[in-house]
Amino acid sequence: MVNKYESIFIISPEVSEDDTKAIVEKIKGVIESHGQLESIDEWGKRKLAYPIKYHNEGYYVLVNFSSEPNFPHELERMYKITDGIIKNIIIKKDK
Asked: Tens digit of pLDDT for each residue in 48-71?
């Protein structure tokens, strides 16, 4: 059974441009190896609604993908252990 998901993750503004691209590619690779990447949209640096880890802005990335129901838990674990990602959310979309 395959479900559709949407995920947003925010990268710290202290991370260099090259490292930001590396983080995006890493997450993209993880999703592609466990599911089907539908789209990835880099929104760029934006002001945060509230400070997160003493930052007032972050680099936003929106990802749409489909995968088995057990993969989002693994993706969330990857977000948490990746240096530079300060916030993330994964939402299951209605079909």
From this structure: 999 999 999 999 999 999 999 999
